[in-house]
Amino acid sequence: MALSRRTVLLSLALSLAAVPAWSASFLAQLDPDKDGTVDLAEAKAAAGKLFDLLDRDKDGTLDARELRGRMSKGEFAAANPDKDGTLDKAEYLAVVETRFRAANPDNDGTVDAREFATPAGKKLLKLLK
C-alpha cells in the first residue's frame, strides 16, 4: 500500500517535533561542523573535555566521586578492567564509544537529536556534558 507524500511528510514533521528541545540545543554544542549530527570523533572530543573538567585533582583519572553519578557501580566496575578504582581517559573514552554505538541503532556513524532523546542517547549525553 503506497503512502501519500503528504502522509509521509506529516509523519516526518511529527517525529521531528517529538525531539525534545534540550537534545537539539545540546546537539548544536557538540556539533562543530554543524551537520546536525555528532560522529564518534566529535563525541570523544566532547568527552575528553568533560573528563579534564571532572578530574579536579588533576591526577589523570576519575574515581566514582568525580564521575558524579554518570555511571552506575556496575558500569564503573566493567569500565575499570585494571580494578584500580579509577578510570583513566582511555577507559572513559572506551565507555563513550560503547554508549555511542548503543545510541546509533541505524549504524550510520552519527547520532542525531532524535537518537540523543532515546534512553541510550541520554546515557551517552551523561558522558559528554
Note the topology.
Elements: H1 5-17, H2 21-30, E1 38-39, H3 40-54, E2 61-62, H4 64-67, H5 73-79, E3 87-88, H6 89-103, E4 110-111, H7 113-116, H8 119-126
Antiparallel strand pairs: 1-4, 2-3
What quaternary form is this? single chain
Largest sheet: 2 strands, antiparallel
> Helix/strand/pairing class, anyone?
mainly alpha
For CATH, the homologous superfamily is named as EF-hand
Number of domains: 1
Instruction: Outline the low-pLDDT stretches.
Output: 8-19
Number of E-state strands: 4
- CATH topology, anyone? Recoverin, domain 1
Task: Walk across the major sheet and give the strand order.
Answer: 1-4
Rounded mean pLDDT score: 86
Our measurement of the CA-to-CA distance between the termini, rounded to an integer number of angstroms, reads 44 Å
What pattern of helices and strands is seen along the backbone? Answer: HHEHEHHEHEHH
Q: How big a fraction of the residues is strand?
A: 5-15%
Radius of gyration computed on alpha carbons: 17 Å
What is the name of the CATH class? Answer: Mainly Alpha
CATH architecture heading: Orthogonal Bundle
Note the overall shape: globular
Number of helices: 8
* Residues in helices, as a percent range: 55-70%
InterPro entries: EF-hand-dom_pair, EF_Hand_1_Ca_BS, EF_hand_dom
Domain EF-hand: 42-77
Keywords: Signal
Protein name: Calcium-binding protein
